[in-house]
């Protein structure tokens, strides 16, 4: 995350768009962390992209994390 990002902790992802490769370690980690924090995964918007597409979308501002 960029240093000036408003996302500092898991709860800051509420209402944000997050990119993952579906079924990836990162995807599963965030789902588990949200479950442990009693967060509804539907409080965020998931974009399932390849790693390269996710990076490009993030750099262009199409996704938040």
UniProtKB/TrEMBL annotation:
Lineage: Bacteria, Pseudomonadati, Pseudomonadota, Betaproteobacteria, Burkholderiales
InterPro entries associated with the record: SsuA/THI5
UniProt protein name: Aliphatic sulfonate ABC transporter periplasmic ligand-binding protein
Organism: Caballeronia terrestris
Pfam short name (any one): NMT1
Domain spans labelled SsuA/THI5-like: 2-65
């Amino acid at each position: 995350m960029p240093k000036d990002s408003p996302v500092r902790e898991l709860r800051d992802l509420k209402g944000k768009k997050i990119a993952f490769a579906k079924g990836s370690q990162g995807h599963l980690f965030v789902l588990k962390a949200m479950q442990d924090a009693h967060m509804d995964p539907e409080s965020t918007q998931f974009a399932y992209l390849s790693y390269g597409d996710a990076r490009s979308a993030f750099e262009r501002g199409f996704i938040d994390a």
